[in-house]
Amino acid sequence: MPRYVARRLGQALLVVAGVVVLTFAIMRMVPGDPAVAFAGPKATPAQLAEARERFGLDDPLWVQLWNYVRDLATGDWGTSLRTRQAVLDDLYVAFPASLELVGTALVIAVVAGIPVGVLAARHKRRLPDLGVRATSVLAVSVPVFWLALAVQTVFAGRLDWFPVAGEYDLTLDTTSPLTLWTNITIVDALITGNWPIFTSTLEHLVLPALVVAAYPTGVVAQLTRAALIEESGQDHARLERSLGFGETAILTRFALRPALNPVLSLIALVFAYAIVNGFLVEAVFNWPGLGRYAVQAISYRDTPAIAGVTLLVAMVYVLANLLVDLLQRVVDPRVRLR
């Protein structure tokens, strides 16, 4: 296990290094002068020269790349051209909100997708299976921004069941101020017993979380169904049938655990996809996460912030893959770590 973890960490570092070089290249290829964006369109030549010196824009490219890598390693991810704050500080504020949204969506996807996949496998080629497959295809295919707008219009606009946008009712900052521990609002509200903000966050979280969960739920349900059908045709399943076990018991007691391996592998990919996919949802619901931060950075041509978001998502994806690889061994001891 230690050798496997060390090898996987080495591979992860290579991936992150590639992303660092790629983000640096993108920053240099984006049209526009970062010095002008930072100093302003009416800046004097002296102010522009000062900005260019501050960001090292007059240095050779290889020197700029070296300085960029060195700064990243020391925790300096650059300064946002829009907020004039350290990019890492901005990400520390924005990422927990995205993690809150995507984490809730993935919990919904797993809790709903796996049982639905079991149901479809149990009734293969019958009405429940056809219904699950059709719904899964629809959930995977529908454009997320259209679904977000439709859900917002119906359930928030017309029915008024849930709030339209935001993370929680901001008036509660005055009446019930929240003490921050993790920067994840719902977790901090739960830890500190701030029930007004906890309840408000839950109400605001329902619609965007369901929209983000649509795609991963459909994928998890389809993959669970396929894995269970394959597993139920193995020799151990035939032995269990000969011993008198019913199909439901075979699927849930014997086939489900090994069938979860491909589902776990998928979750790492879906997690990173959900973060990026959630950008559009955050924009529609005005959710204060990475999505809103990235949209504002792109509209302002804030290249350090864009590079910071890209690098953070890549690191999260690499870490999620590593954790899933280790979790597979726990779920199924037959899996060999190579």
Show the helix and strand layout:
Elements (H helix, E strand, L loop, with lengths): L1 H28 L4 H6 L5 H11 L5 H13 L13 H36 L4 H15 L2 H15 L13 H4 L9 H8 L2 H37 L3 H8 L4 H39 L4 H11 L2 H29 L7
What do you see in this structure?
This protein has 338 residues and is an all-alpha fold. It has helices at residues 2-29, 34-39, 45-55, 61-73, 87-122, 127-141, 144-158, 172-175, 185-192, 195-231, 235-242, 247-285, 290-300, 303-331. α7 crosses α12 and α9 packs across α10 (195-231). The longest helix has 39 residues, at 247-285. It is globular. The model has no long low-confidence stretch (mean pLDDT 81).
Can you count the beta strands? Answer: 0
Per the CATH scheme, the topology name of the domain at 93-302 is MetI-like fold
Which spans of ≥5 residues are poorly predicted at pLDDT below 50? none
- Overall helicity: over 70%
Largest sheet: none
Q: What is the terminal separation in angstroms?
A: 9 Å
Order of SSEs, N→C? Answer: HHHHHHHHHHHHHH
CATH architecture field of the domain at 93-302: Orthogonal Bundle
Alpha-carbon Rg, integer = 24 Å
